[in-house]
Structure formats: structure tokens, C-alpha cells
């Protein structure tokens, strides 16, 4: 039924758009994902979304304990439209919920923070299973909760006077390095057929004007 | 004489500071350098300086044809103090001067721009000799002059809808990847002894209050 719906909806968009969807979908992954804790500067939040799209990272987990996540569309360049954003913002401290939910889905919890057992980015073992990388707020870094509950700790080696990167730079460096490694391993990092179909329907709906009434028509014809 | 001056000046700073200088100097390089053409957003310019310091890149070439390069110190975090900045801003078009000067110093000219003969970042041959990577302005990318006069063209592979990165992200990705590769090759990427001594004197002078009169005293005593 999903295939029929995709075929039906595809009539309403250009052939080039469909080709683009298929190409992007072949490169999308949920093997690597990102969690952002209290990022509040819109230019950082937006640059992160754009970077995720560029590297084929589909899922972004957004934890808002005391800062609201605001996107600057001029910087995000429409990338948020194609990504799956998970929001954690109903409790006072939403980090435990996010960790629990991600652990239940089988993700290794990786904190980008100094630690006695930290691993250098270049030595991180991508093949050991899917993972989520946590990045903290601009001013204070990650919360104690994530620092104490991570499975592994990641460090980007630095050689200068400055001891830290801008947050959007950190995210890009980590995602570039690890997603490149992932693509060169013979592991199952691609989306499953079902996930691809679901995303394609979602993207088609976002692209087509009045998609709701078109889908209703399709459903009526195919009852 | 330089060693004596360094020893003399070292009395006026803490031992930890000297250790930091030595550690940073061991990791500094002029094998990889960066040229920025008309970058005008202070947060981008500043993030680039910070990134260069972090990856041990000593030299930054700043071409100002129609945009002034303005640093936001809150983002640069003092990194510009320790870097060598070369400014090209006396002519209407300063790009030819910059290219000429860098070619004369033996640098391969690398443009980060789409090209029929572009090389993917991961396939770029770092071992072939020292190189300078040119990055263009936020809006229009690199000028035609550099596009036509580069030796090689570099591309960061992307897999999403968005076709470009934020400039500070591009610079960080390229420098991280290529400087990491460089450090793992058995090539001469470190500064020469003379360069290390010169930089150390410069950094000591910047750190010590009233360093000019201290140096005069030293010179008088050692005439």
C-alpha cells in the first residue's frame, strides 16, 4: 500500500525531485545520531541541522532543560524540513528521559567531554554498534547527568592555546569523521526499506501543495 | 644570541607558560596554511582563527578586496595573538599578489570550489608538498582569479539536500582532516629551529609587560 501511495504522490512532483529523494535516502543513516543539550544560540542550532543533513544523519535529539532550541532558517537553509527531530522538553530535567529512550533503542551513549577514560576521535570504534553523540551548551558544556551516565567519552585532539571549539564546529568535526568511517565499513548503516518508504511519503507530503486532500482522494479510490 | 634572549625573557613568565609555549611550538606547522578571500562575518573570521590555533596552523593569509576582515574576540578567544596573519589589502584586487607570494614560497594552491578536476577531501594527497587552502566569501565563494589559477580543487563530499557548509565549518573540516593526515606522515611538517626561536621571542614579548624596556636592558648588558 505504501508503494502505491508513493507512486501516486510522485505524479505531483518533478522527476528530478524524486531522483534527489532517492539519492539522499540511500545515504541516510540512523546508525549515527546526535543529541543536543540546551543549545541556545540560533546560529549554532541551525548550523548543526545543516551539518546533519549534509552528512546524511537523519535523527536529531533536542533536549531543552532551560534553553529553548531556536532555528535560524537563513543558516539552516531548509535542512530541518528533511530531518527527524525528537524533542525532550516536558520535565524540569529532560536528559534522563533522552538517555533512557536512546538506550532502549540500543544506542551507545557518547559524551563529548573531558574524562579519565576519554577516547580520541580518531581512535573511536565505529563498528561496535550504533551510537548517539551528546553535545552540551555553549557556556557550560554537558550536564552532570550525561557526564555520569555516558558509555564512552570522546575527545577531539587539539594542539594550540585554545582548549575548545565552537559548538557547531565540534559537531561537524565529529560527524564528518565518524560518518566517513561508517560509510567505509561493511556494516548495516543504511535505513531499512520500511523507514525509507515512510520518510519518502513524509517528504512527498511536505513537497506537494494540499497533499492532505490528494491523499484522501487516493485512499478513497483504493478502499 | 636568540637562545640567551629567550632565557632572559623566560624569567618574567611562569614555568607553566613556558611549558605551554614549548608544547604548542612542537605542534605548530607551516606545511598547511589557509587563505581567506573576503570573509566579512566577524563570527566566521573569528571561528577560523580559533580553529587554526587548535590544529596548530601558524599562518593565515587574509585577502581583503572588498570586505574588511573583522575579528570578534569573544569567539576567537585570544587565538589571533599567537598566529601569524598576512594581510593583502593594498590593491583593488589582492588575490593575484597573494597567489604569487604563496607560489614563490613553494605552496601548492588549493581552491575549495566545485571543478571538473576536483578531488574529494579524503583522497587529497598531503604528502606531495606544502599547500595553502583558499576559502571564499560567504555569499559568492571564491573569486574567478583563484578559480582559474589554483593547482588543485578540493571538495567535501556531501550526502543531503543542503549543498554547502557554513564557512567556519568548511575550514574546520578541511584543516582537521588534512592536518591529522599530515601528523601521521613521516614528512617534515614541523617548524625549523630558527622559526621556533623567533615565535617564542614574539610570544614572550606579547606575554611580558613592558617587554620593550626589558629587551633594551638585555641588549645593553650583552653588547
What's the layout of helices and strands?
The structure is a homodimer of 223-residue chains.
Chain A: H1 2-10, H2 15-27, E1 32-37, H3 42-54, E2 59-63, H4 73-76, E3 84-88, H5 95-104, E4 108-112, E5 119-120, E6 131-135, H6 144-149, E7 152-155, H7 167-183, H8 193-207, H9 211-221
Parallel strand pairs in A: 1-2, 1-6, 2-3, 4-6, 4-7, 5-7
Structure description:
Two copies of one chain form a homodimer. With about 220 residues, the first copy, chain A, is α/β, with parallel strands linked by helices. The first copy, chain A, has two domains: about 30-185, Alpha/beta knot (3-Layer(aba) Sandwich), CATH 3.40.1280; about 190-220, no CATH class. The first copy, chain A, has helices at about 1-10, 15-25, 40-55, 75, 95-105, 145-150, 165-185, 195-205, 210-220, and strands spanning about 30-35, 60-65, 85-90, 110, 120, 130-135, 150-155. Chain A has a seven-stranded parallel β-sheet with strand order 3-2-1-6-4-7-5, sandwiched between helices. In chain A, helix 1 packs parallel to helix 8 (about 195-205). The radius of gyration of chain A is 19 Å and the shape is globular. Chain A starts with a helix and ends with a helix. The model of chain A has no long low-confidence stretch (mean pLDDT about 90). The interface of A and B includes residues 51 and 165 of A.
Offer a few descriptive terms:
9 helices; alpha/beta; 2 domains; homodimer; 14% strand; 7 strands; 223 residues; Alpha/beta knot; seven-stranded parallel β-sheet
C-alpha Rg of chain A (nearest Å): 19 Å
Strand order of the largest sheet of chain A: 3-2-1-6-4-7-5
Shape of chain A: globular
* Main sheet specs of chain A: 7 strands, parallel
- How widely separated are the two ends of chain A? 11 Å
**What number of domains of chain A?**
2
Q: Let me know the number of strands of chain A.
A: 7
Instruction: Give the class-level CATH name of the largest domain in chain A.
Output: Alpha Beta
Mean pLDDT of chain A, rounded to whole units?
A: 91
CATH architecture of the largest domain in chain A: 3-Layer(aba) Sandwich
Helix content of chain A: 40-55%
The helix/strand series of chain A, from N terminus to C terminus, equals: HHEHEHEHEEEHEHHH
CATH fold-level label of the largest domain in chain A: Alpha/beta knot
What is the CATH homologous superfamily assignment of the largest domain in chain A?
SPOUT methyltransferase, trefoil knot domain
Uncertain segments of chain A = none
